[in-house]
Amino acid sequence: MTHPGSGSTYDPPVDPAHGARPTAPTPAGARGHGSPPPTDPTDRPVALITGASSGIGAATARRFAAEGWHLLLSGRDRSRLEETAAGASAALLPADLAAPEGARLLAQAALRRTGRIDVLVAGAGIGWAGPFGTMPHTDIDRVLFLDLNATLHLVREVLPAMVAAGRGRVVLVGSVAGCVGVREEAVYSAAKAGLAAFAEALRQELRGTGVGVTLVVPGPVETRFFARRGRPYDRARPRPSSPSSVAGAVWEAVSQGRDDAYVPPWLTLPARVRGLAPGLYRRLLNRFG
Ligand SMILES: NC(=O)c1ccc[n+]([C@@H]2O[C@H](COP(=O)([O-])OP(=O)(O)OC[C@H]3O[C@@H](n4cnc5c(N)ncnc54)[C@H](OP(=O)(O)O)[C@@H]3O)[C@@H](O)[C@H]2O)c1
Questions:
Q1: I need a surface site. Which of 76, 207, 229, 254 has the fewest CB within 10 A?
Q2: For 15-71, what is each residue's pLDDT tens digit?
Q3: 157-162: long-range pairs with CB below 8 Å, 24+
Q4: Mind telling me which InterPro entries this protein's record contains (predicted)?
């Protein structure tokens, strides 16, 4: 489900397969005076997508490519980025966002490449599952750094050019864990809750600038996320969604300028119950798990 939102709206460009060129947003002001010209100028709208080597980010990249966008694809695994880019108008910008300067270097490389970023999809992320009392300190730092800090730094680097251009959209990939708090995913839940609060605050700050913020809130999604964190998804509910359904929700939110997108849509319900009646939510949780 997506919700009507504030900020900019993109008219979905016409599918180039049908002959028409996609519309490019106005690049005015995206570069400062005296900046070198972009190395890859394009009249297509430009999306910088992190986490594009796998799962949700890769599916989102394919969706934007199908809509005629130019893609700046980031992840660490270059060969998987190449797979995502196949057949698309795309440039690969491999980057380790866990490195201290990773976000800044990626943003600089992206803006050098095209001179503007119309949409940032911040999809890179990792999980960790297990009792909090056993979580190594290094893993606490790793999850918080990649899922929260690196994302905020990347937005900080990309935002001024969007604001100068008077349009753009930041898409943050949160999680239902950040809305309700999931047992044995305490740090991951905290990181995603941080993203949700950041989205809300930033959206208010950006009112009137033409730049919007979308928080995508997926439940479980069938990706390598669970294998990578070392614990499979083992709950009966909610049933995992496909990465392409999340990509569809991202596209819909961007093209309609929506603030939130829950996947599947009914996940708004537990988030609302917890927000409105936390006592009831906990009783239901204790009873039904
Ligand atoms: N799967 C779910 O159930 C689920 C549910 C809710 C929210 N999410 C969120 O959705 C986002 C995407 O997850 P996914 O399910 O698509 O998982 P995934 O298939 O494991 O993809 C994770 C992506 O993050 C990138 N990444 C990991 N560490 C990185 C680093 N240090 N620097 C740069 N990129 C890095 C990976 O790139 P490389 O492979 O190239 O390293 C990969 O492209 C995450 O933010 C996750 O928290 C997932």
A1: 207
A2: 333 333 333 333 333 444 457 788 888 889 999 999 999 999 999 999 999 999 999
A3: 157/103, 157/104, 157/106, 157/107, 157/108, 158/48, 158/107, 158/110, 158/111, 158/117, 158/120, 159/211, 161/29, 161/30, 161/31, 161/111, 161/116, 161/117, 162/30, 162/117, 162/118, 162/120, 162/209, 162/211
A4: KR_dom (IPR057326), NAD(P)-bd_dom_sf (IPR036291), Sc_DH/Rdtase_CS (IPR020904), SDR_fam (IPR002347)
**Which domain range does residue 189 map to?**
2-288
Mutate-to-test residue for ligand 1 from 63, 73, 74, 76, highest number of ligand atoms within 8 A of CB: 76
Q: Phi then psi for 129, rounded to 5 degrees?
A: -130, 140
Q: How many domains is the chain built from?
A: 1
Backbone angles phi, psi at 86, to 5 degrees: -50, 125
Closest listed residue to residue 106, CA positions, set 80, 77, 72, 78: 72
Mode of pairing for the β-strands spanning 46-50 and 70-74: parallel
Pick the residue whose CA is nearest to atom 47 on ligand 1: 125
Q: Which two tokens stand for residue 128?
A: 């960790």
CA 138 to ligand 1 center in whole angstroms: 18
Extended beta strands in the chain, E state: 2-4, 46-50, 70-74, 90-92, 119-122, 168-173, 211-218, 258-263
Structure confidence by residue, pLDDT tens digits, 120-142? 999 999 999 999 999 999 999 99
218 Cβ below 6 A of ligand 1: yes
Q: What is the CATH number of the domain that holds 103?
A: 3.40.50.720
With beta carbons less than 8 A apart as the criterion, state whether 45 and 70 touch: yes
